[in-house]
Amino acid sequence: MSTPAAQQQLPSQTACLILPARTIIAPHEYPIAYNYSTNHEEKKQQSGAFAVVMTDFMVYPFDTLKTRLQSPDYATVYKDATTGQIRRGMLFKGLYQGVGSVVLATIPASGAFFTTYEASKQALTHLFTNQTQSQTQKTTLPTPLLHSLASCTAEAVSCFILTPAEVLKQNAQIVTSTSTSTSTSTPKPKNITLTILHRFRHRPWKLWSGYTALLGRNLPFTGIQFPIFEFVKGKVVAYREGNHREHDVNGGIVERVCVTGIAGSVAGTVSSVVTTPIDVVKTRMMLAATETAEPKKRAGAWAVGREVYGKEGVKGLFRGGALRAFWTAISFGIYLSMYEGGKVYLGNRRGEREREKQKARDEEEGAPL
């Protein structure tokens, strides 16, 4: 018979959090409840924001390499025209170009995702949960569909905040010393990100031109990843519960981090491989945002995909897929470990403060007048 503590570990009672463009997941350990603590939400957002920024910074070079591999100018800029060899000095130079914009945007974007996902998930669960005669709760909406709807809603909000930073980031990642010195008609900032931003000074609205492309990549990614994560996580938790194994507090925390990290890595790797063609199209559209072509001449996502397939075949649509899957798996493990550890640390600090306050109140009440 499962205990209430064990029931809190079931997949239908875990919550998933996502890092925009690098989908990350982590569970929290309390039962379904439509009303939840604001302090707890702040605690989750603090630990999630810290983990998301640190993870972005550590895996950013892989993202830069992926963008350069998917760039339409990859063969001409990063390969030698005569020998066909990769120009390693060019390809591996400036791997942190544009990191500032995405790191700064990640905090509000991930915070918006956390809040929207939790609210959507709790609302959908509350709406589609019925009380049975045995006093147990049963959801009429399939759990994978519930998770997908909540994550897609949150991703739509998050992508709107992240799109300008993503446009600046990807265009900064492919800037070379020659491209920044070709035009000297007007003075430009020395910072690469500011140089890219300078190109949008007369057309700031075009910073959101890649919103549909980013959303078109992230929605399938999150829609595929969340059910896979919940399934893998649930299977592992059910297996552990079936063994009736007892663990101390520290062992439970370590085990939870490891299991969650493995499940997230598996889900993220599968999702990243499946959605690589959409990611290639998204990269091409983002890199075209700084072009001066008229809107009517700008190709849509379907046209860009057909163009890539026509020129490079299936290989072109999956360019950078292996690298993307590799660093996605790494980022999932890093993020989940940091998020889970940060959440536990902040929770313990909050508990200590509450115990100290309660002790002070007890001493004050027991003091003689």
Can you give a write-up of this model?
It is built from 13 helices and two strands. With 369 residues, the protein is an all-alpha fold. Helix 2 crosses helix 5. Strands 1-2 form a two-stranded antiparallel ribbon. It comes from Aspergillus fijiensis CBS 313.89. It is a multi-pass membrane protein. Pfam families: Mito_carr.
Q: Short summary of the structure?
A:
Belongs to the mitochondrial carrier (TC 2.A.29) family. This protein has helices at residues 4-7, 38-70, 74-77, 88-91, 99-127, 143-173, 177-180, 192-198, 211-242, 249-274, 276-287, 301-317, 321-366; strands at 129-131, 137-139.
Topology:
Layout: H1 4-7, H2 38-70, H3 74-77, H4 88-91, H5 99-127, E1 129-131, E2 137-139, H6 143-173, H7 177-180, H8 192-198, H9 211-242, H10 249-274, H11 276-287, H12 301-317, H13 321-366
Antiparallel strand pairs: 1-2
Helix pairs in contact: 2-5, 2-13, 5-6, 6-8, 6-9, 9-10, 9-11, 10-13, 11-12
Residue share in helix: 55-70%
Low-confidence stretches: 1-37, 182-187
Strand order of the largest sheet: 1-2
Can you give the mean pLDDT? 75
Instruction: Name the shape in a single word.
Output: globular
Distance between the termini: 52 Å
Give me the number of helical elements.
Answer: 13
**Structural class of the secondary elements?**
mainly alpha
Following the backbone from N to C, one meets helices and strands in this order, namely: HHHHHEEHHHHHHHH
Alpha-carbon Rg, integer: 24 Å
Biggest β-sheet strands, sense, barrel: 2 strands, antiparallel
Strand runs, count: 2
Share in β-strands: under 5%
